[in-house]
Design a protein that fits this description.
- By secondary structure, this protein is an alpha+beta fold.
- Helices cover 52% and strands 14% of the residues.
- The protein folds into three domains: 148 residues, GAF domain (Beta-Lactamase), CATH 3.30.450.40; 151 residues, 2-Layer Sandwich (Alpha-Beta Plaits); 87 residues, no CATH class.
- The strands form two sheets. A five-stranded antiparallel β-sheet has the order 2-1-5-4-3.
- Strand 1 and strand 2 form a beta hairpin.
- It is elongated, with a radius of gyration of 26 Å.
- The termini are far apart.
Length: 412
């Protein structure tokens, strides 16, 4: 069986067979379901011809990656370290997932570097020595396949690196040209876009080794992700469907990876125009310049939350009226003007009364519920975390400055 199995795998490799077709063949030969992931634990292919009665399997398939929590849970008796030093597949300790299906994991390597994993579950039949031998053969075959694809992806990566750099530096500043050029590279921008910058906390640390892995993690949440690097920092362009999806880019998987690898992670505000990615790039650059690596215990920074600090820095440097620009306040002013609402007035009273709803309601001669309703609408318009003190601080400072400007205009 092993001889026939090996010949067919080599034949499939020569025919450049897809990963799903390889998985289907191995599933039939070994009689158990299996899953292939890359080195970041994102799912590449898995058995789909049978139901798998395993909650861990279902969780991974549903999210399309193994979460940091599951990865840590697997690490009983330093499982990942033992697998790294092993030349054969290893069974996951029973303590890791009590009451779940038994599983064995093989490492896919290119040279000494891990490029992925194969997990075989013991569902239909007991996994024997022949199965382990076949699983290791599969891992070696996939190592060859990944190496070939890696050479192609490196060439594609260089083209995309140049494209990302041209967008961020304004070399291409036409919405249509950017989108047309993206299509020639089989890339498609979604509705919302932003820039994420990553650099090492320690300046002497070589960050390039983490860039591809982080790109794969970001792709879990993005319709498109490309990046470029200047040797000190990397700049990722991500594109996604809903504005609210932005929160996924600071989720637990990102936080875990950034903290584990000692990185600083800066996130711009989202934009619905790809040509505005130049402005997003400037935002992450400003954050990197403004914040020192010793800025508290945080690794992840959002431009929205840091806008008040930047505002203070610009004001101190005499940058003028634009120092106090706040997009959130502009949105509220525009809404009041176009819809006849009173959101700015409500916000002003709310801040003036130390963010006390009852006191603001009394000052405005409104019912408390009316003020709460307006504040909830303000939250919707801002689409930011209004409960974050830094967001409120930015709004309050901008509103004070706006009132000063208006007063000076009226007096003039």
């Amino acid at each position: 069986m092993f001889y026939q199995f090996s010949l067919e795998l080599v034949s499939m490799l020569a025919r450049n067979a897809s990963l799903p077709s390889i998985v289907q063949y191995v599933d039939q030969m070994l009689g158990n379901p299996l899953m292939i992931t890359d080195e970041t634990f994102s799912v590449l292919a898995y058995s789909q011809n049978r139901p798998v009665p395993d909650p861990v399997w279902k969780e991974i398939i549903q999210s399309q990656y193994s979460s940091p929590k599951l990865v840590d849970q697997t690490n009983v008796n330093e499982f990942w370290k033992r697998l790294e030093n092993s030349s054969v597949p290893l069974f996951v300790d029973d303590e890791a997932f009590k009451g779940c299906v038994k599983r064995v994991v093989a490492r896919i390597r290119i040279g000494s570097k891990t490029k992925g994993y194969i997990a075989l579950l013991e569902c239909e039949k007991k996994i024997d020595d022949e199965d382990l031998k076949a699983l290791q053969m599969l891992a070696e075959i996939l190592g060859v396949k990944f190496n070939e694809e890696n050479a192609i992806s490196e060439a594609v990566g260089q083209i995309r690196d140049r494209f990302a750099k041209d967008i961020l530096t304004g070399v291409i500043d036409s919405e249509k040209v950017i989108r047309d050029r993206a299509e020639t590279m089989k890339l498609k921008f979604s509705k919302w876009h932003m820039v994420i910058s990553v650099k090492a906390i320690q300046p002497q640390k070589y960050i390039s080794q983490y860039l591809d892995d982080l790109c794969e993690i970001l792709k879990r949440h993005a319709k498109l992700c490309i990046y470029t690097s200047d040797g000190i920092a990397a700049y990722y362009i991500v594109s996604f469907s809903q504005k609210s999806d932005r929160k996924k880019f600071i989720g637990p998987d990102i936080q875990s990876y950034v903290k584990k690898n000692g990185c600083l992670y800066y996130v711009s505000r989202p934009t619905d125009r790809v040509r505005n990615l130049l402005l997003c790039y400037r935002e992450v650059c400003e954050m990197a310049e403004t914040l020192e690596p010793e800025f508290g215990e945080h690794n992840i920074f959002l431009y929205d939350c840091l806008a008040p600090f930047e505002m203070i820095v610009k004001a101190c440097s005499g940058d003028g009226e634009r120092s106090y620009y706040c997009r959130g306040l502009e949105q509220l002013l525009q809404t009041d003007k176009s819809q006849g609402t009173h959101y700015v007035e409500t916000l002003r009273s709310f801040f003036r009364n130390n963010q006390n709803v009852s006191a603001a309601a009394e000052e405005l001669y409104l019912h408390r519920n009316t003020v709460n309703y307006r504040l909830s609408k303000i939250r919707e318009i801002l689409e930011d975390d209004f409960d974050d003190y830094r967001i409120r601080l930015h709004l309050q400072m901008a509103l004070i400055w706006y009132d000063i400007v208006q007063m000076n205009k009226n007096q003039g």
